[in-house]
């Protein structure tokens, strides 16, 4: 029975963590080739900034962020860029592993803007699964007052032990990373939430806790129950705060990060090492030596699994992520990305295929396990009937897709798949209904771009003229300068405010629903930025003009 | 989607598998065994013949309709739901009912109440109870002939089942359930006088008590195996006992005692095997409590004020009608939604 300090529902699936917990965290062998997809994070894909044949080092930026919610991509091995396609960059290794690090920084002495820039330059995104750019998340304090940083070390999904092993080996570094992020977002408390099935990680944290400063870190061991690692569930459990529906943890003054992300943040700042590798759990009964490995991003999953003894005869399927929320891989010829936390090579007996679906008998088991207290069964009927209005009224978008309902369903109905489909359909519909609006936004963007280019041209032209003549343009009316300047200053401030506003909306929407298309909002932001640049140029020009006009009377006075 | 299923990979570190839908049906069938055995002990082979006939009709009708609907037959029959419906209707009918009576009941249960609405999971009414209610209003003579406890093989068993027993002889078999007899006692007679007159053949009340305990045992098995939740039986029995006590205190000389209402008739059978049918019951926990309490209250109201001595079937069907409304108004508040204001 849930207590006041608890979330409703929850399940106790077999944990199956033991196999990958036993061995130490090792480095995977350096791959001969890496394939780096341009879209390894939420938001817009990055844009390549290298050419085929370029020589790159480990840590060189090979693709730049596109728009605000996006992330840089770095070469994870040294070598030659072999191929650039629309979706990915392939690098062939030269086997030397030459590094190109950013200068080391001391986070305690550095200013927050410099630290944020470093996180952005290092391509850090949330490594727990959502892949949200960390520097955007760290900027929440611009709009919210944050009191607590929660380290989400619950790792409640079966099989996965990546955070467990990270904490055993890097407890001190993870805590330091947390102090760094706490400084950035202005948090005054740090709380770690960890499930009680990780005694060694808890021990490592206990040892590291007294050394962590300046903030005191509170360790909170919670009972093992899926999905206690859900952001909202954990915040409820640790702090007894309810994140409002459709809101963010920041709305109740909390920011959540996973240990892997915090470690990556510290490494980016302290060592100048961008995000080029991550800890991946390799497990499943079809693997002979399971465990956790530091894997370079872009390593082929097939090679990786073969290195730990993949038994092809027994293999049924490979799952990326956990068995509850992950997805089966269609092909093993895919690379490890920033979001790959676990690979399960399952045998047929281990994770049997679900038997044929039977009709729902309304047993209500799904309702009793739902951690959000939704009515999964009701949603199922409406999803099958494509009754989208009803689905929204039954809070479809509050579903965290944890899979607890699918897990307990005696009729083996893939409930979460239905909900995902329905959500996608609704997102699509929203875009369709706003199509005219979006077209308007694109048009406005083009207008703004043209205006900005015009302003730039004007500025260049006048700069050239003033260079040629070395006299202020005679055409300017004598007293219009002053009036213009005031108007321009107001326009400039308004443009700046609208950029801020667009950034705020974008950051919020991107975090609320990571799967939503952000294109329209990015265009609105770009429009605001173009307007701002144009206003900036015009203002600068007007000031120059005024400066050029103002001294003239003074000179006259002197000459008199 | 979840690649793990409680029915496949087990739950918790004990890895005990949770039952699938077909296994839920089978567990319910297993849980009816104590009741069936006890009933057969007191009322003879007629109970088993009812069940076998009803189950056979049920499977046959289901297969026929599935064939017409061009749906997979084997997979669906394998879920054992038609079998269960047959068993539940079979034990509700008077022992050794004629075959055509059972056939008509199963047509109503499987074809009308279940398949015409779309099959398993889509039926708004409890199929077995639709069959029972139809028979009760259409063939009251046959439905109230409940022979007193007798030997394992009643003398006219075959003649009864085949329906070839002359109508005149029917009366000689007639008996009544204790509730029926009590309901139809004359107005002038006090309850104490009625029982003192020993209106029923000896051992009838004791037999019904034991049968009630057997159904209770089966129900507890379902609760322990977590096939059913406690909400509906507890709510139903509580509201029923509360009303029975009130009626009894109001008029102890004429109303039956709460204990009489609890152990006779289909009360316990209904509480654990009929009202808990998940398809036709409310789904949310709050809804289940209201649904169960409603059934309990309706049973007592019909028994005390209405025209039927038992009334489990009518009470369940009436509450089935209320389920969509209950589901609509007992939607739990998801986490993260404000406690007050706005739509719940």
Q: Would you give an account of this structure?
A:
The complex is a heterodimer of chains A (560) and B (344). Chain A is α/β, with parallel strands linked by helices. Chain A has four domains: 104-273, NADH-ubiquinone oxidoreductase 51kDa subunit (Rossmann fold, 3-Layer(aba) Sandwich); 277-347, Ubiquitin-like (UB roll); 365-433, no CATH class; 438-473 and 480-509 and 518-550. Helix content of chain A is 42%, strand content 14%. Chain A is built from 17 helices and 17 strands. Chain A has helices spanning 18-21, 112-121, 134-138, 162-185, 199-208, 231-239, 259-270, 301-307, 365-369, 376-384, 388-393, 404-408, 415-433, 435-469, 480-512, 519-549, 551-559, and strands at 26-27, 33-37, 47-48, 55-56, 61-64, 73-74, 79-84, 88-93, 148-153, 189-195, 217-222, 254-257, 277-283, 291-296, 315-320, 327-328, 342-347. In chain A, a hairpin with a 7-residue loop joins strand 13 (277-283) and strand 14 (291-296). Chain A is globular. Residues 554-560 of chain A have low confidence and may be disordered. Chain B has 18 helices and no strands. Residues 340-344 of chain B have low confidence and may be disordered. In chain B, 49% of the residues are buried. Chain B has helices at residues 6-9, 21-43, 45-68, 73-77, 81-92, 99-114, 127-138, 140-143, 157-162, 167-173, 178-183, 191-196, 204-224, 231-250, 258-263, 267-274, 285-305, 312-329. Chain B has a domain at 18-175. In chain B, 64% of the residues lie in helices and 0% in strands. With 344 residues, chain B is mainly α. Classes of the chains: A alpha/beta (560), B mainly alpha (344). At the A-B interface, strand 16 and helix 12 of A face helix 1 and helix 2 of B.
């Amino acid at each position: 029975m849930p207590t006041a300090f608890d979330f409703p529902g929850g399940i106790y699936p077999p944990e199956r963590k033991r196999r990958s917990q036993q061995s130490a965290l090792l480095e995977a062998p350096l791959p001969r080739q890496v394939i780096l997809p341009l879209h390894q994070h939420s938001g817009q894909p990055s844009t390549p900034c290298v050419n085929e044949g370029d020589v790159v080092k480990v840590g060189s930026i090979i693709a730049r962020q596109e728009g605000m919610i996006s992330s840089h991509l770095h070469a994870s091995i040294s070598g030659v860029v072999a191929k650039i396609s629309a979706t990915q960059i392939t690098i062939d290794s030269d086997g030397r592993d030459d590094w190109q690090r950013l200068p080391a920084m001391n986070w305690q002495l550095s200013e927050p803007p410099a630290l944020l820039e470093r996180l952005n330059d290092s391509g850090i995104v949330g490594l727990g699964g959502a892949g949200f750019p960390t520097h955007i998340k760290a900027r929440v304090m611009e709009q919210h007052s944050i009191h607590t940083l929660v380290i989400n070390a619950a790792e409640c999904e079966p099989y996965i032990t990546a955070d467990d092993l990270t904490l055993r080996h890097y407890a001190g570094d993870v805590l330091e990373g947390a102090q760094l992020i706490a400084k950035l977002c202005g948090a005054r408390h740090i709380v770690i939430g960890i499930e009680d099935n990780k005694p060694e990680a808890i021990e490592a944290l206990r040892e590291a806790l007294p050394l962590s400063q300046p903030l005191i870190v509170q360790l909170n061991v919670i009972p093992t129950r899926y999905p206690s690692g859900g952001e909202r569930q954990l915040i409820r459990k640790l702090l007894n705060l309810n994140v409002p529906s459709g809101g963010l943890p920041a709305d109740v003054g909390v920011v959540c990060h996973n240990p892997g992300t915090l470690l990556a943040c510290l490494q980016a700042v302290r060592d100048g090492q961008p995000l080029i590798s991550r800890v991946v759990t390799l497990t499943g009964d079809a693997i002979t030596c399971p465990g956790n490995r530091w894997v370079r991003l872009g390593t082929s999953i097939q090679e990786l699994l073969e290195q730990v003894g993949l038994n092809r005869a027994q293999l049924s399927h490979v799952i990326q992520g956990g068995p509850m929320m992950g997805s089966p891989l269609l092909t093993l010829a895919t690379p490890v990305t920033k979001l790959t936390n676990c690979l399960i090579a399952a045998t047929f007996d281990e994770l049997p295929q679900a038997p044929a679906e039977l009709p729902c008998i309304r047993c209500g088991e799904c309702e009793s396990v739902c951690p959000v207290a939704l009515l999964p069964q009701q949603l199922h009927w409406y999803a099958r009937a494509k009754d989208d209005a009803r689905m929204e009224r039954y809070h479809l978008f509050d579903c965290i897709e944890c899979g607890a309902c699918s897990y307990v369903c005696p009729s083996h109905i893939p409930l979460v798949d239905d909900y995902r489909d329905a959500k996608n359909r609704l997102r699509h519909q929203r875009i369709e209904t706003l199509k005219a609006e979006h077209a308007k936004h694109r048009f406005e963007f083009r207008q703004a771009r043209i205006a900005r280019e015009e302003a730039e041209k004007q500025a260049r032209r006048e700069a050239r003229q003033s260079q040629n003549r070395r006299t202020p343009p005679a055409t300017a009316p004598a007293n219009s300068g002053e009036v213009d300047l005031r108007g321009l200053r107001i326009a400039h401030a308004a443009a700046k405010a609208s950029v801020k506003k667009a950034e705020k909306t974008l950051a919020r929407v991107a975090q609320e629903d990571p799967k939503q298309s952000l294109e329209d909002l990015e265009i609105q932001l770009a429009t605001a930025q173009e307007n701002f640049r144009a206003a900036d140029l015009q203002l600068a020009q007007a000031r120059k003009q005024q400066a050029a006009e103002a001294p003239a009377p003074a000179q006259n006075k002197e000459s008199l | 989607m979840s690649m793990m299923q409680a029915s496949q990979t087990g739950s918790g570190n004990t890895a005990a598998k949770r039952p699938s839908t077909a296994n839920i049906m089978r567990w319910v069938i297993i849980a009816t065994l104590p009741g069936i055995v006890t009933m057969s002990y007191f009322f003879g082979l007629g109970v088993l013949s009812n069940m076998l006939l009803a189950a056979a009709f049920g499977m046959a009708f289901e297969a026929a309709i599935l064939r017409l609907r061009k749906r997979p037959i084997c997979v669906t029959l394998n879920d054992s739901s038609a079998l269960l419906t047959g068993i539940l209707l079979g034990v509700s009918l008077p022992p050794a009912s004629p075959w055509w009576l059972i056939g008509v009941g199963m047509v109503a249960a499987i074809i009308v109440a279940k398949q015409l609405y779309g099959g398993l999971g889509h039926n708004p009414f409890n199929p077995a109870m639709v069959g029972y209610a139809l028979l009760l209003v259409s063939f009251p003579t046959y439905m109230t002939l409940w022979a007193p406890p007798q030997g394992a093989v009643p003398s006219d068993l075959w003649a009864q089942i085949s329906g070839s027993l002359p109508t005149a002889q029917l009366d000689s078999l007639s008996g009544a359930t204790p509730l029926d007899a009590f309901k139809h006692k004359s107005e002038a007679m006090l309850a104490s006088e009625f029982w003192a007159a020993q209106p029923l053949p000896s051992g009838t009340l004791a037999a019904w008590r034991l049968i009630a305990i057997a159904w209770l045992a089966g129900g507890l098995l379902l609760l322990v195996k977590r096939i059913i939740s406690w909400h509906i039986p507890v709510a139903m029995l509580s509201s029923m006992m509360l009303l029975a006590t009130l009626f009894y205190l109001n008029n102890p000389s004429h109303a039956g005692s709460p204990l009489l209402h609890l152990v006779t008739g289909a009360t316990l059978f209904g509480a654990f095997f009929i009202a808990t049918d998940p398809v036709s019951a409310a789904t949310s926990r709050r809804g289940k409590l209201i649904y169960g309490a409603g059934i309990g209250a309706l049973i007592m109201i019909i028994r005390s004020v209405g025209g039927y001595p038992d009334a489990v079937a009518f009470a369940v069907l009436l509450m089935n009608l209320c389920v969509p409304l209950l589901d609509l108004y007992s939607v739990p508040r998801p986490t993260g939604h404000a406690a007050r204001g706005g739509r719940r």
